[in-house]
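Re: export button greyed out
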Amino acid sequence: MTQKARAIVITGNGTNCEVEAAHACRLGGFDEAVIAHIADILTGGVRLDDFHFLNLTGGFLDGDDLGSAKAQANRLRYARIAGSEEHLLDQLIRFIADGKPILGVCNGFQMMAKMGLLPSLDGTYLNQEATLTFNDCGRFQDRWVYLKVNPDAPSIFTRGIEKGIYLPIRHGEGKFVAASPAVLEQIENRNLSVLKYTDAAYETSVMEFPLNPNGSQNAIAGICDATGLLMGLMPHPEAFVHRTNHPRWTREELPEDGDGLILFRNAAEYVKKNLC
Amino acid sequence: MAHRIEVALKDGIRDARGERVKREIEHFLHLPVDEVRTLDVYTVDAALSPEELAQVAAGPFSDPVIQAWSLNTPRAAGFDYAVEVGFRPGVTDNVGRTAKEAIEYLIGRPLASGEAVYTSVQYLVTGRFGLADMERIATGLLCNTLIQRYTILAAADFQARGGFPATAPKVQSESRPEVREIDLNVADDELMRISKDGVLALTLEEMKIIQAHFRDPQILAERRKVGLGDRPTDVELEALAQTWSEHCKHKIFAGTVLYEDEQGNRQEIKSLFKSFIQRTTKDVREKLGERDFCLSVFKDNAGVIRFNDDWSLVFKVETHNSPSALDPYGGALTGIVGVNRDPFGTGKGARLIFNTDVFCFADPFYDKPLPARLLHPRRIYEGVVEGVEHGGNKSGIPTVNGSLVFDERFAGKPLVFCGTAGIMPATINGEKSHEKEILPGDLIVMTGGRIGKDGIHGATFSSEELNENSPVSAVQIGDPITQKRMFDFLIRARDKGLYRFITDNGAGGLSSSIGEMSGECGGCRMDLAKAPLKYPGLNPWEILISEAQERMSLAVPPEHIDEFLGMARRFGVEATVLGEFTDTGMFHIMYGEQTVAFLPVAFMHEGLPPMILPAKWETRRHPEPQIAYGVDHTDDLKALLATLNVCSKESVVRRYDHEVQGGSIVKPFTGVADDGPSDAAVVRPILDSYEGVVVSHGICPRYSDIDTYHMTANAIDEGMRNYVAVGGSLDLVAGLDNFCWCDPVLSEKTPDGPYKMAQLVRSNQALYDLCLAYNLPLISGKDSMKNDFYDGTTKISIPPTLLFSVIGKIEDIRKAVTMDLKRPGDIVYLLGKTGDELGASEFLNLKGFVGNNVPVVDAAKAYHRYQAYHEAVLAGVVASCHDLSDGGLAVAAAESAFAGGYGMTIDLASVLWKGEMAARNDTALLFSESASRHLVTVHPENRDRFEAIMSGNCFASIGLVTAEPVLDIAGLAGNSAIRAGLAELKESWQKTLRDL
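Workaround output, generated via the alternate export path:
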């Protein structure tokens, strides 16, 4: 088929990582990566339906004033498209129903969890079953973490990763908490916990600071839904797409591409194979 | 009526905020506290149905996984004291604003005018102490009474009253707006009373100039035509006070200095700014000729230089000292989001690419009594660090470079330097982006936040010393999200060419921004009644000078106004037409139909004659240090590594996002464990290009105790050698000067004014000399001249401080060099010579001395060496490089070693020495802070190339990198001068501030 693979990055109200997220999409193989301000979506100028891959990226939506990403989760749920009866949520639910991938990074992951898009154990995408809350250390942290990949996870984004990836986290509210022990058990049993904070050898998951920077339950750094098309993670894959992003690039022999790029490559490959 | 929604954490969920408060109570007040828990309280003052309130509480206001909520029912139980802390009426409540918006989305309709949400925090404290101690906790830790209010209820009272009542801290507008006239035909002491009582900060001479203006028959005749009387209105007097404040007008830098040096030679200097700062740039640009890269200097909100053919770089550094002394969190937050508006309001507007922060504090562990009104240094430290964290992180701008400097005199006023750089296309819609103009007929438009009573008299109060009566209204709280929304909108409006001119609303508010814009085209006519207000009841003069945050002023051509306003609405940004620009020569301000100010633009901007400032320099000798030096300096090195100025600042730096925007190349920390201190930052602003921006700084206030000339020379050199170390190019590099001085104007309060003024002159002389030698044009800067505390008995003056920031380019980021040792077997070089220059060093300070031998910069030699070193970087033969500053060679070697995880052997006998051989000893070689030195390592296979490139410069091979993790330095007598394992050195360096 000849259709172009199109990615969209939503920005506005405090989203901060839109430029590098769009850059990562292009490097990953998307023909187009559009940065769309939420105002352009709410006024009907831009429609999610015209895209194949949705990026909900990092930032401080509404200053995280009511808890991280809470206000935007509320906005996406209730806001209407100007001059129509359609809610933005309708476009989003249709996007999911169409089998299109969504990646939530940091603030985007927080929003997906709080809207109920992840882990969505019941498949409705509207029941909140987990949250991201204040780091145990009580502070915002910018530091790099080792992430072990669950090879049995259905996520389309992590395909082909051998052991793990190394990425930065930059958050104050990244502690993953499930609504109940049963939810946590299901997340683990269904292999929805895609990424865990580990030691440098990507072998054992770690609960201790700083390797686990926030005290997340079961060291969970990222999860996906059962389809593998929706994924959220606290670390920033778009922040490591070139070797010079690595904190030790001046002393280690590293491949030209950064570890985070593979998530965007996989998304582009999936889109080209299945949606274009 | 108002409703209370309380949100509490569920059982078993960790309350990090409560734990932190508990730790602080124990640490600061030493009280036996068992537990602190916290609740969020939303007071909803709006007509909502019970169902809607429940929906709001369960939805946006709480997180069902970890929180539970209640409506109009207290949740608290099992505590000794409940304390509720909320904002005072009119103080910016960002969470309350977001909460209101969330309600509006949820109910699908806007709240009525006057309806609002107010937030507060409830602390539930269990402990074995009385109400008086609880009061101390509330005022000492939980509440800044300047901007917040609190209520304490003991458990029994809480029960009896059914918890806290729902009270909305609404601003009550008791009065109708009015304009007063002020009679200036009064005696001199009455003129001074008017100035002092009104926080106008005008001198008698200035008041008399205004008096004379309002006696001019021609002026009075013109005034009558617009319906004004012979007396100035409060609007006019306030507008003049803002425009003429030291903060806005820089009267000290513009004044005429009568300078006498130590030989008794006298010299009249007309304006330090013109004679030194502007002349520096002019002379450097002439020297550069064809290679000049300056695009816009000193005339806009920030300086602009060329980055490449397609892009220009913009940079500005500001201070926000006085507000941070009163409200560290709000003051510092406003500092960072305020300086963001400078590059954004430069030229036609720039996208912001990074922040820099430098803080000067007193010892956070200070344990002696402090004068009333001064906050404890630890509270200032915590508040400032957190304010800048929130301001920078939430704005999505990486904080890439900075430092913390400690001296006990900063207890009088902390220094909070915040810098922001931006990038803009060289041309936008075919016009040069660094230029802008206003045409008569263009509309005056204000965008962003609304105006309230916050930040009134900020400009004038910071033009005085901090005292017990400093006004509370001068403090503002910034809102990064309102500003971010505005920037998201304006950058798109810029690209569509919808406005002609943009500037920031900072100190002095509209009075300054529209006043300055009127200077561009020759006048304005503005109606203050059109300005959007946070609440009613503001007087016209308050509207004019309010420093309420997050506002930009623009000139919009009438033909674009509809598109501009329409786009603003779509982006949820408030934009209001307030009037138009004219060429009448008058600053004409209306309030509805009534003229409330009518001032000639020329009088506002040029009506002030220069101050006359006496200055007399004298060399002050300090006692020569009497120290019995031992042979082994290992313990000295460990003690130095642990000092506040040298130790690791990682606990602070990790709280700042330094990687957002994806261009972080040399990060604040580097090395095998990501914890070695980088010299400078390298940023890649355009993600598909390998060209990078390098930014660094130098600051060494302690050298001012000996001579401000050398303080300045060393600060500039430190900025340059940090910049050069990581690979910054000498062909495209510029400087910014930020002077923070103690009041140098001779007066009763400042009998040593002439000495302090002479310190300023000497500093400016060094600025010129060094910048010319380094081909460094100054592109922007700022001065803050009243950094003293005085309460009538105690005076604390800060040491004269210059922050020198350096910005430039690296041709290819892949050539950047970091400071960590890379490989055993590498050769260790020291570039530059070391001398007996321990004066005012960190080492002598540790021993309780100042000394006299301050480091002297040999700029010509240094520049030549920096050029050669940069060639070596481009050739790829440098493995690591670290600059030598506080603590000298020993500290630099230790840092490079533990950052790299490899040891080093160094022989002090190989270090090149300058000056008398008799003074050469291990102590000076190890700890002297001689300028312009770098510690470099080179792989053995690159030795010949490196030495060939460096030939003709002072440098020496002094040792080797070793696999054994030990720093081993041999003294002149073949003794072991230092021998220590890297782990223990690193522990000394990391432990001091680790837990803050």
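The CA atoms of residues 66 and 72 of chain A lie 10 Å apart. The button fix ships in the next patch.
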